[in-house]
Amino acid sequence: MKVISDAKILKDKIGKSISKYGNSAQHNLELFLNYGMKGEECIFLDAENQKGVMAYRKGGAWKIFTDPLCKEHEKIDIITKAIELILKEEEAKKIIMEDISEELRKKIVEFSKDRKFRVLKPSYSLFWPVIDLKDFSEEMPGKKWKTFRKVRNNFFRENEVVFKGVKEVDKKEIKDLFERWKRNRRDNDRVHFVQYLKFTDNSFEGLDLFRAMEVNGQIRSIYGGWKIPNSKSYYSFLGIHDYTIKDLGEVSYLDELAVAKKMGIELLDLGGIEKEHLGFKMKFHPSKMYRTDTFSIMSK
To answer: If you ran DSSP here, which 8-state letter would residue 76 be given?
Structure first.
């Protein structure tokens, strides 16, 4: 396994790896490049044959980002090789493991029992609801969707709404929206603010879908995401509104479901959130849910 830090080589290798082995919501090159915090260097731990691990390095501090890029049965082998490389060759004392699937974390814990590192308990976990779009249609017929049908109809009757693409919206309007959104969010949500600004500056490169909602003459909401590689699934990465109009968030989500279904998407991943804040996303009738954990690994 090799440590790749050269930006040009790294982008090429990760891009090819994602194309071949990407399989989860966060397997997206632009997300990885924009996700790092200030001072963090993007690293690819190259396991050869277009497989590897995305990570960040800041001085002697390391962070592994999401599950490895490889076949499912190879994940534990590749991620433990990455862990041991960082602890031994890079002489790190601690590794933050961010958004690792629950199943893989359990395997790492088991693997660590006879190794020279220990796995700490998760510092937090996120829960990711997934909607089966076979059960959704834009008309939202029947009792199941009755409330949302009424919400959407009332919203469009009471407001003048125009949907716009990324090239039709000024970046300053989007950044102003982010500022208004930030004022209404919790501290742990605000950590994504800088990442959102990076995506804006890069014209949301890496997204397969982007829509802005102009309501009564002002941009009040944006949403967007990308197709999950090697699947018929989609990750709703970005969903921002300024809380100024009743049911704005609900209507934006409903439009995203409708547009994603027209794109041929079968499963829509609503993104990870803490368990105590699942209420809003659960209103959209997800068919399943999975969990990721963020935790630390320390040398013994």
So the answer is: H
